[in-house]
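Lecture notes, unit on protein representations.

Consider one protein chain, 330 amino acids long.
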Amino acid sequence: MKVIFGILLSLNFLVSSGQSASNSSHVNFSGLDRSFSSAAISSANATIQLNKWRQQTQLQPEDATAWLNYYNWQDREKSGTTGDKKEALQHIFKSAERSIAGTWQYSLMTFLKSGKRDSSALFDAVTRSDEKATLYPYVVQYALIRENKFLLAQYCEDVNRTNPLSPLMYEYHYNALMSAGQQATIYARGLNDLVPMAVLQQVYGVRKDVHLKYYEGSAAENSYLCLSAGKDELTKYPNAIYTGLLIKLGSEEELKKHYESNLSFARLDATAALSADEAIVYKNYLPAFILLYRMYKKSNDPQLPLLEKRLRKLAQLTATGDKIDQLIAE
């Protein structure tokens, strides 16, 4: 299992449910560069984006959104040491202060700089912004970090009211929750993985037994981690196994159990197309489907034909057919 896990990681199938989203299925970011959290972005492209927003702040220092995007892309920068990154972020923050202090974007930067703990800065951003729906998901994140049940319930309702999930995205995040065992802990950190699962719990009552936690670089033993954490994080857990749309230290039989008994594919089976945003996160099904395919083929399981049909359809919908053909032929 460890070898297969490494192969699939190397093929970059594991992508973040990042902020490259349409308003109908993901968070609305009102001018922000919505791809900065996507784990599928290459380091070269990340550098291009970082330089792009740096230049924009130089050309138009009053552009508050440019400063926020610049800060977020710098936070994603992987070259250099941790100390180098902290120094670069501090430089951006102080430079932004001279140009955009008093804007909601600067208040949000202050919140992010605090490790998402500074509630005063967060709610100042909410107060100042004309499009408050942009910031509701950050409040949900904060509520999960602080385990504030009142805020969590209130702002999950606000997120759902202002930016409801599409049916396909609902099914995807439903299946992420259903990929965990009873009374489980699931770690996630993105606005478009942690927040939708919280909305499903708080608004729709899905898997209220599951404890959602904000991922900060390590996960407790026997807990689950969203595939959207990305390749760099998932490689920290080489003995982990897929359980659907999550990973966990455990038996591969758990994946089989979840697939056959807990997950729903009604909308996937019925759809003829995925939006670009849906295709990004739906690729996260592929590692589990491939592992199941190999398991079923080895045991001549009667569910193999249906799984292969679903796998090939998903490969077509996500434009990954060549890679899938190569993997299932091995």
